[in-house]
């Protein structure tokens, strides 16, 4: 009669800290090179911005740059297992204690390997309403590609525990423990109603944005413009079963203003811009932490009233144009998104508060770009069509809850 | 001696008989050189017409603290080791062996009485009392006859329900991680009796080892919600800890 056997299958899951920094952290070091002009009346602009970034490293909520894999890795103790079993936790604790394991002993480690990339394409369509007023529409399309694998490495204490089970005629119990440990992460995700894929490719729409560009000053040494804009909630809502919480937009109606100015000293151009965005409240699905330490957000609510999350962005840029067709730019970019506030009735209010607190993010990055343009040559009859092309890289300096990897951007624009 | 003590002294004797192999028992010695690996692909037909040599089920009414569970596990481990030791010295007629055997039997009796005091339900069937075997009718099922109504640990003589089948669970989604033999026992309310005992439980039996002639299983007994058990004082209880323990030995 060996009662310990019945507990082997109770080891169904382990608590994990996984991708906690990713769920609301898709802020990345992309940039927009500032310009203060707009299209001449009746002119059309068609542009495509392509950007690519790895998501191997992320800034945590405390500002530490960590690899995704390191967020995957976790030491698991007996206590972790016991706490994760609401019904049989006490029974399991008794089994461990009876076989020489203390609650504080480690049973092993989850070791993961996660790599991924983001590829974005942002088509832009512009039209000159007058010589100093234009309208622009853009719609981001983002592709995420994530590869993940994990394994559970048993500690010496756990190996000794399993051997003790085998030595006391409980080989099947030992086998069941081994299987439970090996599948613990998948089981945890299953119980939390997450979908697990070791190789995920997902393409999502972002929020469409319509900018009106009004040129304010056009003097040879100082130019400025004001851009009121509206954000349309075309991004898909958060997929509550998506472990990675990947989205390309907030899926909320928004209004914002941008002011941009350019000062010239000789050939040197200095641009500065500030953007403020307000997002209107909206009912959305959200994953929620079941307690303050739940980084996996095990609960969910498909009907959460989401407010807050307003954003500010500032940019400073220096551009040195070579005659006619080449320009070099260096810039500094700062983005800040304040935490959202969540209201819902399915779970206790603390869960909504804990979940919402995780949504704040910020990022400071630099960028360097080289642009080629044929506009002047076209106007002088030296080129067939007016167009620009730009290649640049955004480099993150510091951030919270954001992607800590460089972003490579390529943009091509044609005018008609 | 209280009724409970009497019951568990009886239980102890039954278990002991099973562990030692009675003189008239047809139980063959395990062929250790031919022990199969439990991971081998198994079908119920591998067990065809096997008889239930021993079926032991215990359920607890409540959850215990970790330290209380630890004591239960400690006790069962000692019980198990003692049973193995008793089996090892079976047949040795020297005085020393006899003395050791008596000491182990006494220790196990005390342990069983202690364990029984913590349980809500205990059942122990032997091949002599219940005469159960796996039979192929519409499907493989547990069939018992004749039965011993006087066995104090007959569990109310539940009968097998549905098919006895091997289940290969998905280790990610199932609480049971390795293949098991599923068997369901049901005891219906007896209208001719004042006893409120009525229950159904699924047995998830994981094969510990097998030979050509015998298979040993251990696993969980999962009582169905709404089951009613009877305490030793005769009062009814529908509160039962959802994970009980079961051991099964099948043989020719």
Can you give me a brief rundown of this structure?
Chain A contains eight helices and 21 strands. With 416 residues, chain A is α+β, with helices and mostly antiparallel strands.
Radius of gyration of chain B: 18 Å
Largest sheet, spatial ordering of strands of chain A: 1-5-6-9-10-11-12-15-16-18-19-21
Helix/strand class of chain B: alpha+beta
- Count of alpha/pi helices of chain A: 8
Could you give the order of strands across the largest sheet of chain B?
2-1-11-8-7-6-5
Q: What is the overall pLDDT average of chain A?
A: 85
The total strand number of chain B stands at: 11
Question: Oligomeric status of the shown chains?
Answer: heterodimer
| Whole-number mean pLDDT of chain B | 79
- SSE order of chain B: HEHHEEEEEEEEEE
Between the first and last Cα atoms of chain A, what is the distance in angstroms? 85 Å
What gap, in angstroms, lies between the N and C termini of chain B? 37 Å
Key features of this structure:
heterodimer, A: alpha+beta, 12-stranded antiparallel beta barrel, 3-stranded antiparallel beta sheet, 21 strands, elongated, B: 252 residues, alpha+beta, two-stranded antiparallel sheet, globular, disordered N terminus
How does this structure look, described?
The complex is a heterodimer of chains A (416) and B (252). With 416 residues, chain A is α+β, with helices and mostly antiparallel strands. Chain A is built from eight helices and 21 strands. In chain A, the strands form three sheets. Chain A has a twelve-stranded antiparallel beta barrel with strand order 1-5-6-9-10-11-12-15-16-18-19-21. In chain A, strands 3-2-20 form a three-stranded antiparallel beta sheet. In chain A, strands 13-14-17 form a three-stranded antiparallel beta sheet, covered by helices on one side. In chain A, strand 9 (208-218) and strand 10 form a beta hairpin. The longest helix of chain B has 24 residues, at 66-89. With 252 residues, chain B is α+β, with helices and mostly antiparallel strands. Mean pLDDT of chain B is 79; it is low at 1-38. Chain B has helices at 3-20, 66-89, 95-116, and strands at residues 51-60, 119-126, 132-136, 140-144, 159-167, 180-187, 199-210, 214-223, 229-230, 236-237, 244-251. In chain B, helix 2 packs antiparallel against helix 3. Chain B is globular, with a radius of gyration of 18 Å. In chain B, 25% of the residues lie in helices and 31% in strands. Chain B has a seven-stranded antiparallel beta sheet with strand order 2-1-11-8-7-6-5, covered by helices on one side. Chain B has a two-stranded antiparallel ribbon with strand order 3-4. Chain B has a two-stranded antiparallel sheet with strand order 9-10. Chain B has three helices and eleven strands, in the order H-E-H-H-E-E-E-E-E-E-E-E-E-E. Chain A binds chain B through residues 1-10, 12, 82, 87-88, 90-91, 93-95, 97-99, 103, 168-173, 175-176, 179-180, 182-183, 186-187, 190, and chain B through 15, 38-39, 56, 58, 63-74, 76-77, 79-81, 83-84, 171-173, 175-178, 204, 206-209, 218-220, 242-247.
């Amino acid at each position: 009669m060996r009662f310990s056997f019945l507990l082997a299958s109770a080891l169904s899951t382990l608590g994990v800290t996984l991708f906690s920094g990713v769920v609301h952290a898709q802020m990345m070091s992309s940039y927009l090179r500032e310009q203060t002009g707009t299209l001449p009346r009746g002119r059309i602009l068609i542009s495509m911005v392509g950007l690519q970034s790895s998501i191997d490293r992320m800034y945590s909520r405390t500002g530490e740059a960590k690899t995704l894999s390191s967020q995957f890795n976790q030491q698991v103790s007996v206590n972790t297992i016991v706490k994760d079993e609401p019904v049989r936790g006490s029974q399991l604790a008794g089994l461990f204690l009876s076989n020489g394991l203390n609650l504080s002993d480690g049973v092993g480690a989850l070791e993961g390997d996660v790599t991924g990339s983001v590829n974005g394409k942002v088509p832009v369509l512009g039209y000159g309403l007058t010589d100093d007023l234009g309208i622009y529409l853009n719609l981001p399309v983002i592709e995420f590609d994530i590869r993940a694998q994990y394994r559970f490495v048993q500690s010496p204490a756990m190996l000794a525990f399993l051997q003790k089970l085998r030595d006391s005629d409980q080989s099947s119990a030992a086998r069941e423990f081994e299987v439970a440990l090996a599948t613990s992460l998948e089981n945890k995700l299953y119980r939390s109603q997450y979908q697990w894929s070791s190789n995920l490719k997902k393409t999502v729409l972002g929020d469409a944005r319509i900018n009106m560009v009004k040129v304010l000053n056009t003097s040879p040494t100082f130019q400025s413009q004001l851009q009121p804009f509206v954000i349309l909630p075309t991004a898909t809502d958060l997929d509550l079963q998506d472990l990675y919480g990947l989205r390309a937009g907030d899926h909320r109606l928004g209004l914002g203003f941008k002011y941009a100015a350019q000062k010239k000293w000789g050939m040197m151009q200095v641009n500065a811009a500030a953007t403020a965005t307000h997002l209107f409240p909206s009912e959305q699905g959200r994953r929620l932490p079941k307690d303050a330490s739940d980084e996996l957000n095990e609960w969910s609510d498909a009907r959460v009233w989401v407010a807050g999350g307003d954003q500010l962005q500032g940019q400073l840029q220096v551009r040195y144009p070579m005659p006619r067709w080449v320009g070099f730019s260096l810039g500094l970019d700062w983005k800040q998104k304040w935490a959202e506030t969540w209201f819902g009735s399915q779970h206790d209010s603390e869960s909504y508060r804990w979940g919402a607190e995780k949504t704040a993010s910020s990022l400071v990055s630099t960028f360097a770009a080289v642009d080629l343009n044929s506009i002047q040559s076209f106007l002088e009859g030296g080129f067939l069509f007016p167009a620009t092309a730009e290649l640049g890289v955004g480099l993150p300096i510091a951030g919270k809850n954001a992607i800590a990897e460089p972003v490579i951007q390529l943009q091509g624009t044609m005018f008609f | 001696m209280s009724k409970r003590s009497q019951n568990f002294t009886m239980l102890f004797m039954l278990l002991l008989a099973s562990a030692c192999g009675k003189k008239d028992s047809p139980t063959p010695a395990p062929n250790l050189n031919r022990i199969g690996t439990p991971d081998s692909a198994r079908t119920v037909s591998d067990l065809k017409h096997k008889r239930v040599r021993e079926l032991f089920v215990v359920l607890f009414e409540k959850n215990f603290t970790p330290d209380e569970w630890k004591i239960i596990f400690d006790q069962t481990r000692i019980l198990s080791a003692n049973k193995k030791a008793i089996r090892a010295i079976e047949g040795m007629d020297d005085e020393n062996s006899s003395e050791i055997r008596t000491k182990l039997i006494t220790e196990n009796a005390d342990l069983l009485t202690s364990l029984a005091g913590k349980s809500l339900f205990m059942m122990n069937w032997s091949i002599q009392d219940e005469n159960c075997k796996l039979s192929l009718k519409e499907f493989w099922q547990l069939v018992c006859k004749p039965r011993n109504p006087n066995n104090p640990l007959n569990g109310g003589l539940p009968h097998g329900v549905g098919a006895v089948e091997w289940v290969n669970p998905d280790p990610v989604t199932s609480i049971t991680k390795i293949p098991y033999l599923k068997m369901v026992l049901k005891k219906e309310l007896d209208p001719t009796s004042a006893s409120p005992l009525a229950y159904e439980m699924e047995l998830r039996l994981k094969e510990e080892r097998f030979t050509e002639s015998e298979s040993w299983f251990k696993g969980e007994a999962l009582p169905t919600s709404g089951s009613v058990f009877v305490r030793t004082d005769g009062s009814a209880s529908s509160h039962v800890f959802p994970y009980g323990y079961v051991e099964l030995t099948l043989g020719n």
